[in-house]
Each structure stands twice: as structure tokens, then as C-alpha cells.
């Protein structure tokens, strides 16, 4: 896999993660990982981080 393909793939994956966190916040979806109920506030920094990484990946492209 060359660098351009990797960066594009990373951008798409991080965009998907950001969209899912945004949907969780908007629709109030519950998230349970290994029996642990993930608090809703956790999606705010996760959305910011995933959005930043997606933006950076597409900017590098």
C-alpha cells in the first residue's frame, strides 16, 4: 500500500468514526463496551479528535 492510499483510507475511517460519534450525540445512542456504559460526554472529545485526524489526513492528501 502506498502512502496516498494509506492516507485516504485513514481519512475515510476517521471520518466514519467522527460521524458515528456525532450521531451518538444527536440521537442519544448508548454505548456499552465490555459491560462498561460509556458516558455521553466521552463522545465530545472523541468527535473532536476523530474529526481533526480526518481533516489532517485529507489535507495531507
Write a concise keyword list for the protein shown above.
two-stranded antiparallel sheet; mainly alpha; 2 helices; 70% helix; 61 residues; single chain
In short:
The protein has 61 residues and is mostly helical. It is 70% helix and 7% strand.
Structure description:
Helix 1 (3-27) packs antiparallel against helix 2. This protein has one domain. The chain is built from 2 helices and 2 strands; from the N terminus they run αββα. The longest helix has 25 residues, at 3-27. A two-stranded antiparallel sheet has the order 1-2. By secondary structure, it is mainly alpha-helical. It has helices spanning 3-27, 43-60; strands at 32-33, 36-37. The two termini are 14 Å apart.
- Could you report the average pLDDT, rounded to the nearest whole number? 96
Runs in which pLDDT lies below 50 for 5 or more consecutive residues are none
For the secondary structure, the number of strands is 2
Share of helix, binned: over 70%
Give the N-to-C terminal Cα separation.
14 Å
- Taking all Cα atoms into account, the compactness measure Rg is 13 Å
Helix and strand content put the structural class at mainly alpha
As an assembly, this protein is single chain
For the largest sheet, list the strands in their spatial order.
1-2
Largest sheet: 2 strands, antiparallel
Shape: elongated
Query: What is the string of SSEs from the N terminus onward?
Result: HEEH
- Indicate the proportion of strand residues: 5-15%
Please, how many helices?
A: 2
Overall domain count: 1
Amino acid at each position: 500500500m502506498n502512502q496516498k492510499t494509506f492516507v485516504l483510507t485513514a481519512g475515510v475511517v476517521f471520518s466514519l468514526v467522527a460521524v458515528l460519534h456525532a450521531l451518538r450525540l444527536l440521537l442519544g445512542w448508548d454505548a456499552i463496551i465490555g459491560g462498561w456504559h460509556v458516558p455521553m460526554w466521552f463522545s465530545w472529545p472523541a468527535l473532536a479528535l476523530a474529526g481533526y485526524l480526518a481533516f489532517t489526513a485529507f489535507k495531507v492528501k
